[in-house]
Amino acid sequence: SAVISQKPSRDICQRGTSLTIQCQVDSQVTMMFWYRQQPGQSLTLIATANQGSEATYESGFVIDKFPISRPNLTFSTLTVSNMSPEDSSIYLCSVAGTANQPQHFGDGTRLSIL
Amino acid sequence: TQLLEQSPQFLSIQEGENLTVYCNSSSVFSSLQWYRQEPGEGPVLLVTVVTGGEVKKLKRLTFQFGDARKDSSLHITAAQPGDTGLYLCAGPRGSNYQLIWGAGTKLIIKP
């Protein structure tokens, strides 16, 4: 299975600033996903990162707040813009090689906003 | 809209006890996946069930897919502290790559 490296693993940021989270995969993958998770709770999909085209965002998430890049088949970034305390959460990237197959996850970025 | 209802959301039991976690839907799924997540890590796939009525065993964990492919269960026999974690069920959303997730079961096994 794919090995996913996510950076940073955690950060504490000031409100109003932005943070870019990186997700690197050790092999080419078709689909990459970005999730948000509160500790002990389930995953909420933010967007699907498509290589060569704009990301597809879920309801409640917009590109201005969560811009995503996918420059190639092994790398993606998620930026959390103009952060507020409500953005404090765990952000996870995952990958899938084919439809209906399991996803493989990075270890997440634990983000706290002061 | 496809939904996965997972229960219980929290379970704290003593080492050695048995437990079952349920994942139910009113929709048919082509498959269901079970993941376990430990603090500071991402979810890790435990098993995928594909065929209605299928039973899969992973050491002390037994996974079952309902005959109608609308529900699944995870049974743990003689739970150990190492089983502690967040258990998540997930199923494909339509025919694309995305997954629908259950609410998760936070499991604590006390020594």
Quick rundown:
The complex is a heterodimer of chains A (114) and B (111). Chain A is mainly beta and 114 residues long.
Structure, explained:
The complex is a heterodimer of chains A (114) and B (111). Helix content of chain A is 0%, strand content 50%. Chain A is mainly β and 114 residues long. Chain A is built from no helices and 11 strands. The mean pLDDT of chain A is 94. In chain A, strands 2, 4, 5, 6, 9, 10 and 11 form a 7-stranded mixed beta sheet that branches. The N and C termini of chain B lie far apart (41 Å). Chain B is globular. The mean pLDDT of chain B is 95. Chain B has 111 residues and is mainly β. The chains are: A mainly beta (114), B mainly beta (111). Chains A and B meet through strand 5, strand 9 and strand 10 of A and strand 5 and strand 9 of B.
Number of helices of chain B: 0
| Number of separate strands of chain B | 11
The counted number of beta strands of chain A is: 11
In helices, the fraction of residues of chain A equals under 10%
Name the chain pair with the biggest interface and residue counts per chain. Answer: A-B, 26 and 26 residues
Keywords for this structure?
heterodimer, A: 114 residues, mainly beta, 7-stranded mixed β-sheet, 4-stranded antiparallel β-sheet, 0% helix, B: 111 residues, 5-stranded antiparallel β-sheet, globular
Any chance you could write out the topology, listing elements then pairs?
The complex is a heterodimer of chains A (114) and B (111).
Chain A (H helix, E strand, L loop, with lengths): L3 E4 L2 E4 L5 E7 L5 E7 L5 E7 L6 E2 L10 E5 L2 E6 L8 E8 L7 E2 L3 E5 L1
Parallel strand pairs in A: 2-11
Antiparallel strand pairs in A: 1-3, 3-8, 4-5, 4-9, 5-6, 7-8, 9-10, 9-11
Chain B lengths: L4 E3 L2 E5 L4 E6 L7 E6 L6 E6 L5 E4 L2 E5 L5 E6 L8 E8 L6 E3 L3 E6 L1
